[in-house]
Amino acid sequence: MRLEVKGQHQDNEDGLDRVGLGFHDSKRPLLILKHRPNAKNTPHDFAGLYHYAILVQDRKA
Question: What's residue 20's pLDDT?
Fold first, then answer.
């Protein structure tokens, strides 16, 4: 699954930088990530955002 940047801006509510990722042929982002520069590092055995699942419609035949 190849995602590309669909937009990048600062969130008006919390001031964090947001990056929207989506498919090439779509204008809308599928996933929005927020960058929190002062976030604490987590322990090495902590589960983070390394794996995620996205349910999308089947392709048309």
Answer: 93
Length of the chain in terms of residues written: 61
Give dist(CA 24, CA 41) in Å, integer. Answer: 33
Q: Enter the pTM of the model.
A: 0.62
Cβ atoms 52, 30 nearer than 8 A: no
Q: What is the pLDDT of residues 2-26, one digit of tens each?
A: 899 999 999 888 989 999 999 999 8
Produce one character per residue of 19-39: b if its CB has 16 or more CB atoms within 10 Å, e if not.
ebebeeeeeebeeeeeeeeee
Q: Where are the domains positioned within the chain?
A: 4-35
Picking from 20, 17, 44, 23, the residue whose alpha carbon sits closest to that of residue 32 is 20
3-class SS of residue 8: strand
